[in-house]
Prior knowledge:
By secondary structure, this protein is an alpha/beta fold. It has 13 helices and 13 strands. β9 (223-228), α6 (240-254) and β10 (260-265) form a beta-alpha-beta unit. Iron/sulfur cluster (SF4) is lined by residues 170, 172, 178-179, 182, 184, 229-230.
Amino acid sequence: MSTAQAQSPAPHTTIADLQSFERRYTNLPFEAILKQDILRLGLSFDGKALSGIEFKTKDYFIFTFDHVPLAEQSEEIRFRAPEEIRLSGGPFSLAKTVVSVRIDPSSPYRVSTTDRGPALFLGDQFLADVDFPPVPAWYRHTTSSGKSPGEIAPVIEWGYLIYLTVFRNCQYFGKDEECAFCDINHNWRQQRLQGRPYTGIKSIEEILEVLSFIDKEDTVAECYTITGGSVVTDLQKKGETDFYFQYIRAIEERFPGRWMGKMVVQAWEKADLLRFKEAGIKVYHPNYEVWDPELFTKLCPGKTRFIGRENWIRRIVESVDVFGPSHVIPNFVGGVELSKPYGFKTVAEAVKSTAEGLDFFMSHGVVPRFTTWCPEPYTTLSTLEKQEKPPLVYFLELLSEWKRIFEKYKLPTPPGYGPPGPGQAVFSVSAFMDVIGYQGRA
Ligand code: SF4
């Protein structure tokens, strides 16, 4: 079986399905319903829609987030697809909706060219006008080491977030350690095989150089994220916390408070976190991934072995004392609870389990978010078994639960995600920001 066959063909959504979900989930804006379906099924592109216009292409900022390997993408598409698309108008009168691009040539959602520019189609049916993200002006520069700014400090979320994956590998390596849904190491290999200058460990100097371009010329970016793989032993003779700290200290010393600092790293002890807060980090993402104890063990074997589920939970809760509850935002990989062979067999069980985790964290004032599981081809899960994309109803139930629990605890809008609500949200890999504040429809 080739890697491209490792996933099932996309279940075909129809316009009638979307209309039916719109009638059923009146608690969710239609924008969120469509966004989750596109994220779930991926996007296909008509090569003509990508030619003759300038836009920001995918920088592959940490994972591939594609359903097919780079080597199996057509020449017209590979490295030519936009980072995100922004939908508007069409028969559902969509407010502007930003959606991350996950390439899947078998997706029923297709971006094609029309007289009015690119547009989204579901089968033959026109769904929305499409904008591609603009290229930031500072992308025209080259660093003194000859690299493009998008290689060192790409922006995502329509320019809102500077994404600094400073270590593009993870020392949880191979199927016995790396998270079973994660393609960070496989992405790095694919990029290098395609001949891209894909820097494994970014230097502080090159990051500061690109940030100086952004500082002078950019008016859109409001946050940066420092992230990368886990460091089990040491990296460049530094332990994990020291390795990540050096970047934050350098950025905040040079550009104090210029952007809101966020970090996506492992769950660390409170004593280790204090200096990050003092240095300027505002938001902490110790990603929890999956709530169910057995699934956590199976899907996160490295995290289980080196830190352990109970420690991970305790550290999340304790980190509230450092950053403040709403500034601790662990991520769940929405849908991975339904992956094979270990996952739940029904949508109801999967949502019940994750909702339990959401309620636990939200009861402590923590605001977990979720992303949309992307079954990339080389991950442990995709090599273990043919993966089916979770049904749309799973994501709509999860969104409903996330919104219900968030409102139950009267939590504030998570900081560092831009404005909430339909037509406003820029977070592009799930619709959780799109549903905040939505009052429902009759
Ligand atoms: S800890 Fe897990 S999710 Fe994070 S980079 Fe490593 S393998 Fe990927």
